[in-house]
Amino acid sequence: MSLERFISDAISPWMKREGPESDIVLSSRVRLARNIQQYVFPIAADKESAHEVIASISSCMNEEKDAAESEKLEMLMMEELKPVQKRVLVEKHLISPNLAEQAKYGAVLMNADESVSIMLNEEDHIRIQCLAPGLQLEEVLGKANEMDDLIEKNVDYAFDEKRGYLTSCPTNVGTGLRASIMMHLPALVLTKKISRIIPAINQLGLAVRGIYGEGTEAQGNIFQISNQMTLGKSEEDIMEDLAGVVMQVIQQERSARKQLQDGLKLQLEDKLFRSLGTLENCRIIQSKEAAKCLSDVRLGIDLEILPGISKTILNELMILTQPGFLQQYAGEVLTPEERDIRRATLIRERIKLENR
């Protein structure tokens, strides 16, 4: 395995599998924040200290030869990557924007199917991230805890009996757990019910963000719902609360889809076929418009209005048409206008290949 392997394929192997509620829930993710007791937090660390943390974690993973996941983990050092390569890893959700942009002496350990990534020297010394398709919160938490236990055998975590795990940001103190669900909610957007649902979710102590987390907008009608509180709640309570809200949102989205089909069937079909036509024939397309059209086509597939196109191609194009991937494939830095032209060409050619 190599860097090229991680950045050449737009769709991670785990994304090719389907999970529960996959018509609406794209993925489940759990992230655990941890720090090593004897080292200063990354925000105050120098190069030597940061490299010692990386060496410590790398060493303990290599020592645990019996752990199924540890043998498959490969390390990439941020200081050895080009900006476009780091951007591609962000677009694939393998690393955070903060690790790519701020963590000069950071690194990431990833397994073969890219469902596990352990970020080092991001905001905290260790950020264990596990992903799975569909609604699989218990499964990703179990995998994350497995990796957490493996590391804790070899290092002493910064932990307080009253406060729990100590982290750089106070919002992560406690369990250090951030769980999130990526959801495709086009019907709630089309019926304008999303503007009522988001504030209601926020009042329950959960956050609704865009596709790349905090500070990003919801492109392509994709929303990320995650917990905000990590202190004063157990992992089980956090996961139960999140799962309960997500199931309610799923029901609301399905209800909105039925409402559109029952009351505005012709208008809905017209919108979805127009979006497919745009993707098949465009010569210049910006990322926002591409995401919107891809969302419409995905909805058409889920409602069996647009047969003959696989969901996998849309998952692939959602990532493949991002700026980092376009420039990685081009092998050069592209202007926004050049990216729009290449994006359109790539989409047309990929859909033609699917039609064949």
TrEMBL record:
The keyword Metal-binding does not apply. InterPro entries: Arg_Kinase (IPR023660), ATP-guanido_PTrfase (IPR000749), ATP-guanido_PTrfase_AS (IPR022415), ATP-guanido_PTrfase_cat (IPR022414), Gln_synth/guanido_kin_cat_dom (IPR014746). Residues 24-256 form the Phosphagen kinase C-terminal domain. A motif (RDXXRA motif of the pArg binding pocket involved in allosteric regulation) lies at residues 339-344. Its EC number is 2.7.14.1. Appears to be allosterically activated by the binding of pArg-containing polypeptides to the pArg-binding pocket localized in the C-terminal domain of McsB. SUPFAM superfamilies: Glutamine synthetase/guanido kinase (SSF55931). CDD domains: bacterial_phosphagen_kinase (cd07930). Keywords: Allosteric enzyme, ATP-binding, Kinase, Nucleotide-binding, Transferase. GO terms for molecular function: protein arginine kinase activity. It catalyses: L-arginyl-[protein] + ATP = N(omega)-phospho-L-arginyl-[protein] + ADP + H(+). ATP binds at residues 27-31, 93, 127, 178-182, 209-214. Catalyzes the specific phosphorylation of arginine residues in proteins. Belongs to the ATP:guanido phosphotransferase family. This is Protein-arginine kinase. The gene is mcsB.
